[in-house]
Every structure is written in C-alpha cells, then in structure tokens.
Amino acid sequence: MKRIYLPAYLRSQRAHDAPSAVRRVALARMWGRAARALRRAALLLPLALSALALLLLTRGPPAPPPTPAAVAMQLQGIPAVSEPHFQDSNDIEVPATEDEVSSRPWYMVGGRARPTAHDPDAKMFPEDAPGEDRIIDQLMYTLPEDEDVPVKTILLANGFSPWGVRGGRREFIKNKCPVDRCSLTATRTDHADAILFKDHHTALNVKRDIKQLWILYYLECPYHTPPLGLTAYDVFNYTATYRRDSDIVAPYERWVYHNPKITEKVLDRNYAANKTKKVAWFVSNCHASNRRLQYARKLSKHIQVDIYGACGAHHCPKSDPNCLEMLDREYKFYLAFENSNCRDYVTEKFFVNGLKHSVLPIVMGARPSEYAAVAPPNSYIHVEEFASPKELAAYLHRLDQDDTLYNSYFKWKDTGEFINTYFFCRVCAMVHASERRLRRAHYTDVQAWWREAACTRQDWRAEGKPPADNDYRVRD
User: Fold this and answer.
1) What's the whole-model pTM score?
2) What is the largest CA-CA distance in the chain?
3) CB 299 within 8 A of CB 305
C-alpha cells in the first residue's frame, strides 16, 4: 500500500504507526483538509506579497544611525533637525481673484476701495489713538461730499526740489488723494494755511496767521539732524517723522495685511535650499554710535559673517544689482543693523535689504517692542533677544541645521504688502481735519520732544523701560 506523506504540522507518531483502516480514513480526511488549506494559501500569497511591497515603499528606507554630531546635539539639549513641510496638492492656496484684489483699499496694489463717507471721529491725531500710527485712518479720511470745501495752500519752506514734487494741485490729483483740496507752493506768502519745514527751521519773513499750521519733518534720527535754534520754541504745531508718536507718522515702509485674519501661509518653497553661506552685511559707516561693527566682529568669532564694503574684506558695490541677488541666493541671514539705536528708528536696511529679500534679518536699532509694532510677526531676530553674540550665533547655527525652524520665519510672505503711505495726501487731510475739529496744539519745545531719551549709545536693556511720552505737545 502506498504510504501517504503528510506535512510536518499534520504528522502524528500514533497515526504513522497504526495502519488500520479507520486510521487510514482519518488520515485521508486530514490530508484533504490540508490540501484545501494549501490551495487557499496559494491563492492569497500574491495578494499578501503585493501588500507587503506597498507597505515597504511607503515607509521608505530605514533611518540611518545617528551621527556623532546628532548625538552631541541631543546631549546639549538641542532638538533634532526636522524636515520642512511645504505645500502639497491639498495645501495650495487659490490666488486672489481680480474682484478680491480690487476690493482692497485704494492705497494697495490693484485696490479700488475708497472712503465713502466723512467720519468726524476718525483717528487722525495722536490723542485719538495713543501708541498707534493712524496712517490707515488718515489715508481713508474724506470730506463731506455736499460741501464746497476751499483749497488749502501748503507752503514748502525748503522749496520743491528737496521733496521731488511740483507746485499746484498736481501731487494730490495725480495720487487720487481722498482729500485733494490742497495746493503746494514755494512762494513765501502770508496766506498759506500750513508751512512744511524739512529737516530744519528756515527763517521766513512772513507774517504768521494765528490759524496757520507749522509742520516740522525729519527723515533721519536725532544723531543725524541739525539742532534747532531758539526761534523753534512754541512755533511748531505738527511733527512729521518716523516716530509713532508724531502727528503725521512718516515711516520708511508700512506693512499691511491683505486680510488681517490671515497672517501666515503654508510655504511653497524652501528658503534654505542651496544656501551655503551664513551671515552677510553690507555696510560703509564703520563708526556708528551703537558700535554695531564691534558686535558683528564678536559674532564672527562664532559663525561665518561676510562683511561687504568699507568695513570688511568683501566687496560688492551698491550700484550692482547682483549684490542683493547674491544675498538671496547664497546667504541665510543678513545683519540689518541701523547706525543708531533710537526710538522707532527702523529704516530701509531692515525693510528693503531684509524683508523684501529671501534672507532672515538680524536687527539692531530700535527697541524689540518697536520692531514688533512695524514688522510682520516672526519675520526677524533682534540681537537683544540674546545675552551675547555667542548665544545669538548658537541659535543661528541651530536655524542653519533645521530647515523647518528656519522656514518658519518666512510664513508671513505673500500675506500682505508694503504700501505707499502717500505723505502729501495725509498732510492735506490733516490740515482740513484740524480746521474742522477746531484743533489747536503746539510744541513748547520741539527739540526736547525730539531728542530727550530718544536714543542710546548702548543696548536698550541698559536703559530700562521706555519713558512715558513727554508733555512738550500741548493743546491750545
């Protein structure tokens, strides 16, 4: 009789040794069941192998063992480097439609929305909104449509050339100012409604009307503006400077969100990609009052800092557009150091060289709270957030190693724009608003307001809390 072979898992020593008919029948039945199980397994095996292959493909290769550097970072408490997340097909945001763009305010690119009604309670003056720049309110101010409003004359005491404008109403009509009932002149006249002085007080041989407004404009900080003489006491009604407590705030740049509820977006690019260099700085003034060059040199002891210009070993002329392109392409960080540490003093070094390019600005100049008031959140690093240049360098090394953390400083991109603040539009609006509100105010000592506790030659931490606003501006 032919012996039936059973798989190992079905073998039984007792069944193997007992050739009775009953046992043979039992063994035959067991073999039948085993055969059917094998056939089912054969059918399922290809499916199981396919599923296993798909699982291995989605998981990717096994992670390599940690490098000695990674182990050292863990021992020092530095988080491990993570991979950046960028947009996938489900994350991509739909660009704003033409209607959405046109519905933006008139001072934005493509915006057409204009003020529709006169608001007598608009936030125009410092006392209306302490601590705010009121720029948007001034840009959206308009006069009643049913009134025949007279044209106000604004005398430019320094002439047209320093301002780059022409006389008459051209500036207001060309820019489509909501309040355009003003005219510029450089002719000395006793009948001007306002006189605008640029950077210094120019003696005028004109008889001043009691209602005439005198406005003092400063572009630079107190360290770089000439002092005013005794004739400047009790004569100026308005100030126009970069400081947020000015009557007419005139910043170097002004950031505005397209939608205040959307302050960051998912990135569609890696801002760290292909960048092999660390820190760059374009500088020509080697003797700044805040000792920024000395700070940069201390920083360079702990991280690569390439200094371009008269103060460093690298050269790239300002007239060469490739310089800033090189900054975007090769460097991760840029030293946006102002030449002075002064209240609210934030210039194009930060806005243009920094934020408008694909580098992360490291700032020195105004207080940290003052940068926070004018810049998109998480768009820069302030040196006073760190105890020393060495500590700052350690954080920059961490950012250099972690693309996700580095890219988190660029999520504000494309959520808004730097607007034209239309200075002369706002001057015209303020002259009209002052008359309508019967507002009279002047500075008893504009020099003290401008210079007192406004700047420091050390960092702000040594100065303590910002001083309260002085009382040199009084209401008449």
Assistant:
1) 0.79
2) 138
3) yes
Residue 348 to residue 351: CA distance in whole angstroms: 5
pLDDT score at 409: 98
- Contact, 346 vs 366, CB < 8 A? yes
| Catalytic annotation present for 145 | no
pLDDT at 459 > cutoff 60: yes
Parallel, antiparallel, or unpaired: how do β-strands 381-382 and 360-364 relate? parallel
Angle CA(454)–CA(457)–CA(460) in degrees, nearest 5? 65
Alpha-carbon distances of 472 from 56, 124, 241, rounded to whole Å: 74, 19, 16
The dihedral sign for the CA sequence 336, 341, 342, 344: positive
For 190-201, the three-class secondary structure string (H helix, E strand, C coil) is CCCCEEEEECCC
CA–CA dist 143, 172 (Å, integer): 14
Q: pLDDT tens digit string along 417-426?
A: 999 999 999 9
Distance of alpha carbon 336 from alpha carbon 363, whole angstroms: 5
Catalytic position from the list 220, 264, 417, 463: 220
- C-alpha 193/C-alpha 151 separation (Å) is 9
Cα dihedral sign for 164, 170, 173, 178?
Answer: positive
C-alpha pair distances (Å), 416 with each of 109, 263, 268, 356, 407:
10, 8, 16, 12, 18
Q: What is the end-to-end Cα distance of the chain in Å, rounded? A: 128
